[in-house]
Amino acid sequence: MIRSRLHRAATAASGHRCKQHRHYTKTLVASSTTHQKTKPSFFDQVDEQMNQDYPHQYESYLESKRAYQNRKEMMLQNEEARVRRLNNDDDVAPVMADTKLFQENTSSDVIERSSRSRHQVEQIEEPWYKQIEQQEGASTQSRAEEATSTAAETPKREESNISLNLDNNHNNNTTGKKSSIFSSISKSALSFQDGDKSTTIPLAELFPSLYAKESSSDSATSSSHTDTTDAINPEMMYDARHFDAYREAMTAVMSNEKMQRTLSKFEKRDEANVELIQKLKEWVLSDHRIIDEEVVGDRWSKLEKHWREEWTVGGASSLMEGSNGGNDPVSNVMKAELKAQNELFQSKLLHADEGDDQEGKKDPQTFNQIAQLLFTALGRYCAERARSVPMEVAWYKVKESGLVLPKDTISTYLYVVGTMGMGDSFRMTTGDEEKKNNNSEASISEEVVTYHDLAMKPTESSISLRVKAFASKGDAKTANELLEAFKKRIGDDVDNKEAIRLRTYLPILKQYCESKDVGAALAVFKQMQSISTVILEPENYVLLLASIAENGFFCTSSPPIEGALDLGLNHESGPELFDELVSEMADDVLEISSASASRLHNALAIGFKERPENNLKEMHPLASMPISRQPAESNEVVACRISLDRSSGICPVTQAQQRLIVLEPSQRRQLHDDLLTLSREQFSKFAGKRDGESPDRATEELSKFSDWLNERDGEPFTAILDGANIGYYMQSFDKGRFNYHQIKFMVDTLEERGENVLVVIPHKYGYNSFYTSKSHHQQLDAEERTIMNDLLRRKKLYKVPPRCLDDFYWMLASVSDQVSARKEVDLSVANDDSSGRWPGVRPVLISNDQMRDHKWELLEPRLFRRWYGCHIVNYNFTAFVMGECVDGNEIFFSQADFFSREIQGNQSGSGKAWHFPVSDWDLEERFAVR
């Protein structure tokens, strides 16, 4: 239906009267002719009809039409300027739409050039119109006659057409065709401004049915135009969608005010630059190539071959050593090839129709300089807007012209193709499928990498793309050799900006796993573990485990993995190897995703498929894994979803009990030291810097607090209170009042349970009056002052120094050794404590703070989670109103974790059972494997 309606509108607008639409067209034409003063124009009626029929696409239609008109106007102005220059007459009248008036003001030679140029513009702009002609099966001659008769009947429609198609009339006299506004807007793009950014949505995505056969009709369409001397070869044209995106981006770059001023300076510098810049603009916005693809491809193949020869002869190490930023023989070869290509290109573009006397007027260096500016700006445009499609055409034009790009531009191009996955998607409208599918052909990303590495030194970004290309072709061995050579060149400096990242190694690991080369995959994984800058994710461990499992190496009595012992492993295969690898995983990651759990389940089902102890069945990767509650047999393979008993931590399937994994003494010291470092880094950020104030002030104050905890005598603190959190608990109703009565209520309750408390508060709350916010001032009453002074007298209240964060103080207090007070006594409470204290480590931290502040992300994740699970105790009670509370008010505590929420293995009577927390399952649920 959409196609039929758009076809009808296009036919009416272009002047073609198809039989099935004759009545529709006559009605609109009669209306516009009879009521030209009071009624809207013909095209206004077409717009109205479009609005009625397709309200959802109407705004897109108008945007596309305006974009078309702007482009037509720019092309017309460019043509007028070119005609004046060719005719050497600055006073010549502007090019007229009417062919007769145009002929009176220009020479025959200029008319021929203009006609040819306009016809090429017609071909570029109107492939959809030509497609409609072919679908209707009408000949050029019959359409010309029909258009002529229609024009005689509807002169007003002809007048409207001139306003929207300024250059159609002179073409009608030679071809008899009337082009439609829809033929151009159907290929344009819709631009929506977002600040200084824009996003392009091709109309083809909105009206896909109109473009279904476009690529097949392009070659037939181009052959129908035989009246021009320079017929466009369809094989010399770019992919339509790619070119639309490129043209929209390049037009935006050229219309930029700064770029316009730069081009104007060049034009004023030399009169010859005016024509040179015009030719450059025409080539930049042209959708056909100047140099045949094979010529450009052959020259680029030489560069790629030269790079590979250096690799073959000297190996990766020599290639790395020979790259010295563009001064070695390798880059000199590139410069020579680019120079030859540039000379060939300029001879065809600038001097094809000129005599020898004019060749010297055009400066090739000026042309290259301006082209560099345009393509540099285009690279920035694509990088800022995360758009890679325009680069499909831009990169070929760079190669075609033989441009020597600046180093920062090359890096920008490398970033665009590297982060946006353009790959091998570049293609022409038509071409040899065998050539397109030839694996020896380099993708655009590989070509940009070659350009980058021959012009400069290889970097982590370029090596990453090169490794990805090798791995995608199944050559993981060469990819690994290249990566190892690069690793030797950069050394072990972790602060090196070129340090190897996970993204560089991962394609090699994936390729080895996919090719079932388990030994090589294991070796690469061990290399990854040894590099500090390679941060492994849970999915990377699951990838390796699943690959080994699928190949049956975790089964009892399975054959050994070749080279496993040489990698430092203690086992070559079997369940023991699984335990060893998962133990390493548990030291590095905390949990997995449900997708990883499903992946590991299916891998074990495949690997144990022929084993008698197996009862696993593959499940759909997207299916939700059901919870298992039935106890497993002693020799049964387990890989299922379970829910732990919260009070005991026992798994219902494996009967293994989960442990509470507490911080070891070395981990407590590490967390203590990390807090001191973090306090220094965060001091200036949160408190700001004052004149004469040391940046180490926060660290010095926190160290004093730590020393006080270690040196004080008396009973060790077993409960640390987040005073601000408790004082403000549920106090939003009273303008955010800080309530000392709630703090006393908490202290009394904990002391009744046998805990020795320390309240930590920000400094300002230790005064009789303070601001709770910028606009609200609070004055403590006599009873509140008594509570505060009593806590200070008993040395149970610590006021954090001004401008220091109290968070660091109560957290450090929870991990302090309290050397003098503790006297090396374990403060932990057993499960069967007779006094009713909840079991677990001491001291605990009483707070409802969810610890979601970004500053905690700077701490080591495992230490932070282990600390949080062991030490944090949440609370709940009915809030106080001043000093009043409800009768029978009671505090309910949510004790610290009884078992740790991290990957752990525990004996189950039939071997070790592993339980993996899953990020998108409930807190008590685990993925169990045995």
What does this structure look like?
By secondary structure, this protein is an alpha/beta fold. The protein has three domains: 2-232, no CATH class; 233-458, no CATH class; 684-894, 3-Layer(aba) Sandwich (Rossmann fold). The chain contains 39 helices and 14 strands. The strands form four sheets. A six-stranded mixed beta sheet has the order 8-5-4-9-10-11, with helices on both faces. The chain has a four-stranded antiparallel beta sheet with strand order 3-14-13-12, with helices on one face. Strand 12 (904-907) and strand 13 (912-917) form a beta hairpin. Helix 14 packs across helix 21 (389-401) and helix 15 runs antiparallel to helix 16 (272-284). It is globular and about 105 Å long. The model is unreliable at 1-38, 88-232, 312-320, 322-326, 356-360 and 422-441 (pLDDT under 50).
Question: How is the topology of this model organized?
Answer:
Elements: H1 2-14, H2 22-34, H3 42-53, H4 55-87, H5 99-105, H6 108-125, H7 127-136, H8 140-153, H9 155-164, H10 169-175, H11 181-185, E1 189-194, E2 197-202, H12 203-206, H13 214-223, H14 240-254, H15 257-269, H16 272-284, H17 293-322, H18 329-349, H19 356-359, H20 364-384, H21 389-401, H22 407-419, H23 433-436, H24 444-455, H25 460-472, H26 476-490, H27 502-514, H28 518-529, H29 538-550, H30 574-586, H31 594-607, E3 639-643, H32 665-687, H33 697-711, E4 719-722, H34 723-727, H35 740-752, E5 757-762, E6 769-771, E7 777-779, H36 782-793, E8 797-800, H37 806-815, H38 819-822, E9 844-846, H39 861-871, E10 872-876, E11 892-894, E12 904-907, E13 912-917, E14 925-929
Parallel strand pairs: 4-5, 4-9, 5-8, 9-10
Antiparallel strand pairs: 1-2, 3-14, 6-7, 10-11, 12-13, 13-14
